[in-house]
Amino acid sequence: MKILGFVPARMAASRFPGKPLHPIAGRPMLEHCYRRAKLYERWDALFITTCDEEIRTWAEGQGHPVIMTADTHTRALDRVAEAAEICGQDVEENDIVVCVQGDEPLLGPDMIEAIIKPFDNDAEVEGTLLSVPIPDEATFLNPDMVKLVHDLKGDVMFTSRAPIPYAKKFSPALGAKRVGGIFGFRWHFLKWFTDQPESPMEIAEACDSNRIYDNGRRQRIAPAPARPYLSVDSPEDVGRVEAVIKDDDLWGKY
User: Fold this and answer.
1) What distances in angstroms separate CA 161 from CA 9, 58, 99, one per listed residue?
2) What Å distances lie between residue 123 and 1, 69, 184, CA to CA?
3) pTM, whole model, 2 decimals?
4) Which candidate in 68, 163, 237, 239 could, as Cys together with 232 as Cys, close a disulfide (CB 3.0–4.6 Å)?
5) Was domain 3-133+179-245 assigned CATH 3.90.700.10?
6) Contact between 98 and 115 (Cβ < 8 Å)
7) Rounded CA gap, 207 and 227, in Å?
């Protein structure tokens, strides 16, 4: 079982143009994401994938392998699927393709291991996603944060930008969770996903994972380790990441 990783990035992010190369603590955000992901030891290969020459030029200058894809993709998983097709690896049906979003500068190799572990333990698992505890009401109410609910087995039932599950008053004891930016797929499952049209709840919620659940299939949650994990969705998020990144255990290791 090969494990192939792809870090998708594009400069034309609607909420934060130029985000991948925006500096965080003196380094482009994409560099944090790629180098931290690279610390995971089980990769058979790890690539940056983009449609932007600016990102390609930067990546090649750093010595990072980069795959150019079409500029028509609006979903990261579509970009990853194209990259997996043309990456030069012999990708077999049950190999694992991991999407490591390029706006997660606090990710760690233990989070990627969490994504892979369900595949190691259960041959029936087709897809996984990082599940991150929601610690405060502001995150719970923030529509930029995609929330999830799952069944007792750990299979995701639904994702939403609304605050779910419902609560009259938020408390960490609610057990609310959000989607982290790391996803794992059996190769055959990712190909199936990209072959499906956008689904009703995917469109309504602007959450592409709902395409899976609308079609009666599931992803297994991969619980994130308990430590700060902040995504970058807007320029304001940069300062929040910089406030914690230098105290992170991985700082200075890449």
Assistant:
1) 22, 33, 20
2) 11, 31, 14
3) 0.95
4) 237
5) no
6) yes
7) 25
Contact between 176 and 134 under an 8 Å Cβ cutoff? The reply is yes
Taking each helix axis from N to C terminus, what angle separates 53-62 and 29-38, rounded to the nearest 10 degrees?
Answer: 50
Q: Where are the beta strands (DSSP E) in the chain?
A: 3-8, 23-24, 27-28, 45-50, 66-68, 96-100, 127-133, 147-150, 156-160, 177-186, 220-223
Q: pLDDT digits over 221-234, tens only?
A: 999 988 889 999 89
**Inter-residue long-range contacts of 225-231, CB under 8 Å, 24+ positions, other chains counted:** 225/108, 225/110, 225/111, 225/114, 226/133, 228/106, 229/104, 229/106, 229/107, 229/111, 229/132, 229/180, 230/105, 230/106, 231/101, 231/103, 231/104, 231/144, 231/145, 231/180, 231/181
